[in-house]
Model the fold of this input.
Amino acid sequence: MSSLPKLLITGANGFTGKHACSHFAKAGFKVIAVVRNHAPAGLFQTELCDLTNKKAVTEMIKRVKPQYLLHLAGQNHVGESWIDPVSSLEANFLSTLYLIEALRHENPTCKIIVVGSALQFNPQEISTLKHPYSLSKTLQVLVAQSWAELYELPIIIAKPSNLTGPGISNGVCSIFAKKIVGMEKKYTEKILEVSNPYAQRDFIDVRDVVYAYETLFKKGIPGKLYDIASGSSRSLREVIDTFKKITNEEFKVVCTADSKKEENIKTSCLNLRQLGWQPLIPFEVSLLDVLNFYRHNQLI
Done:
């Protein structure tokens, strides 16, 4: 019998999930990777489970009885949420409810991190709701905070900003990197399209985010919401200029829509930094790692 603390990671096949499985295994946890279809690479115990199936979730929690849960799984595509809003609500809201309710009965001391989104909206101002994805993530966080309050469950909400870093991702940095590597390998024309080069984002490496999750498991206060961000805002133009510094490829930047300047985004991570966390990976290093990932993986 392993004496290591059992950590259930949902969405283990995803961009963050793969990094989380590796990180926490090295950090001394017994990682149980929850996936819907097939097992991730690595020597991890795997649980196949459809998280939108209440019975399946309950049976998995009864079987595993984890001491920790990192809930990363869900539908994270705004466009998909317009096409099938019910599926987005099931994947983000109901799956979270099924997991924490099962844990309430089987192991109410399990430490839980539910990952929210920067695209949540303020329910008191319905005009700020822009798409069904935002609704699904807002409801996800509300039910997690409600169960923490009503049943005194040790649930923490983490809200990361825009992720970068090596691995398969639909983030803008990965989209740019794939295009640039295609140029390097002569697959694509030397044109990089961007809708608004002045758009501002806070970018943070996925490995720093996973490190933040470990910090929250150890020191986070149940019921609280923690933003995870670099604290620095960058325009997409700055992102492209950084890529130009780390590749020898010359390319043209084309704007595909009317562009207008945006104000800098400032995300305070003070409550997380007070726990001893700080981002460690410089932005340029993160982008170079993204480029090298696509250079060494035939994904173009």
Notes: Residues 6 and 30 are 5 Å apart (CA to CA).
